[in-house]
Design goal:
α2 packs across α6. This protein is 49% helix and 10% strand. It is built from six helices and three strands. A hairpin with a 4-residue loop joins β1 and β2. It has a domain of 89 residues: Endonuclease, Chain A (3-Layer(aba) Sandwich).
Length: 153
């Protein structure tokens, strides 16, 4: 199992930055809540943050073996090449580039572990969910229909 960096010895660029970052949630972020509500509204039953699955999917359809993640654009490195270049010119560049790169590696490892267990993994970016949760819901609904149509649950 690969180890993630500890980031020990690195400091926030300012007390305000440190305070702001402490306010970020691990679970029940605004995009997650929006997706949960939209899925519930159309009658889909799911579990949230299943701890015994790799990566603790934000939404899990256990019988159909579908794991859904709502990835934060910054924390999970959306448009990574561009973001990495921008971060290079900011305070604590080495910390943030290492942190986000580690998150991306962990995401890939968790997705691979789920697939090895027979799960289908779906990842959405937070801004896509915020802009149009219906598109995410339709994709999930169609995927579930396809899986169930093939005797999957």
């Amino acid at each position: 199992m690969s180890r993630t960096p500890t980031f020990r010895g690195l400091r926030a660029s300012s007390p305000a930055s440190s305070h702001a970052m402490r306010g970020n949630r691990k679970h029940n972020t605004q995009p997650e809540v929006l997706l949960h509500r939209a899925l519930s509204r159309i009658g889909l039953r799911f579990q949230r943050h299943v701890r015994d699955l790799p990566g603790e999917p934000d939404v899990a359809f256990i019988k159909a073996k579908v794991a859904v993640f709502c990835d934060g654009d910054f924390w999970h490195g959306r448009n990574w090449r561009s973001l990495k270049m921008k971060l290079a010119h900011r305070a604590n560049a080495s910390y943030w580039m290492a942190k986000i790169a580690a998150n991306r590696r962990r995401d890939a490892l968790n997705s691979a572990a789920l697939r090895r267990r027979g799960w289908t993994v779906v990842r959405f970016w937070e801004t896509d969910i915020m802009r149009d949760p219906g598109t995410a819901v339709l994709k999930i609904k169609n995927l579930l229909a396809a899986i169930r149509g093939h005797g999957g649950g």
